Known about the structure:
The chain is an alpha/beta fold. 23% of the residues lie in helices and 22% in strands. The protein has one domain: Dihydrofolate Reductase, subunit A (3-Layer(aba) Sandwich), CATH 3.40.430.10.
Amino acid sequence: MALKHxxxxxxxxxxxxxxxxxxxxxxxxxxxxxxxxxxxxxxKIVIEGTEQGLGSSSDxxxxxxxxxxxDAVLNGAETLRKSGSSPLPASEEMRALREYRGLPRAxxxxxxxxxxxxxxxxxxxxxxxxxxxxFLADSxxxxxxxxxxxxxxxxxxxxxxxSVRAMLRxxxxxxxxxxLLCEGGAALNGALFDADAVxxxxxxxxxxxxxxxxxxxxxxxxxxxxxxxxxxxTLVSAVTNPETSEVYLRYRVGxxxxxxxx
Length: 262
Ligand SMILES: NC(=O)c1ccc[n+]([C@@H]2O[C@H](COP(=O)([O-])OP(=O)(O)OC[C@H]3O[C@@H](n4cnc5c(N)ncnc54)[C@H](OP(=O)(O)O)[C@@H]3O)[C@@H](O)[C@H]2O)c1
């Protein structure tokens, strides 16, 4: 399937890759959800505890291009603890593109947590360059909740048994989020897929073999793999980068007949 293009101001006309994507309207009651990850050739998403070193600067640029479309960028709490979380598009060009699209210069930063055990002195809570919100399960201890609230960032309580759906509903209805970009980690991605709430899956395959005894892959969960819950993917585009030997894959979740298999 060919990628759709739209007219850009002349200064934007030469932008490559994911800057020129278009997406369908958000479904009823939740945003249109994109998941974006980078993994090694052997399917690993971390080296020594973080994603650092898996993707090239070209991959980073593509990530920034995806952010240019997003109303909000979501991470799981463990990613915030391990890697930090910032929704900022890295380049001035991408910030300008957002303005051209009528979006704020930075997406809303979003983190989902059950525990409320979060790095409150980190950029996610202190940066004046973007707004952020924590969706916190109602099972979190009150002292943790109060500590997060004391940062001045918004905290939204979600039911622990239905946190993903409640968060998505609130993002769409209360925060006006139409395009949500989830940048991991694996547990959050797993919860989104299990809620049948992922529309597109972007994954960069890096030219690395990580090996080792840690097998964190892009999507994981507490349940055993089940053939009833396998999600089919339909390839939208596959772009090779001869300079970095990376492959950039874009999938729509579902078959060509519909969002899920029959
Ligand atoms: N290669 C890549 O592209 C990439 C991208 C992102 C992250 N990473 C790496 O992935 C690792 C983190 O992945 P991970 O799977 O361990 O953790 P994660 O998905 O980042 O975060 C898991 C945490 O998110 C919260 N959470 C997840 N699902 C929830 C739900 N349904 N309801 C409420 N809270 C929920 C919980 O927070 P609490 O623990 O606070 O309760 C949970 O422990 C890091 O090492 C990071 O560097 C790699």
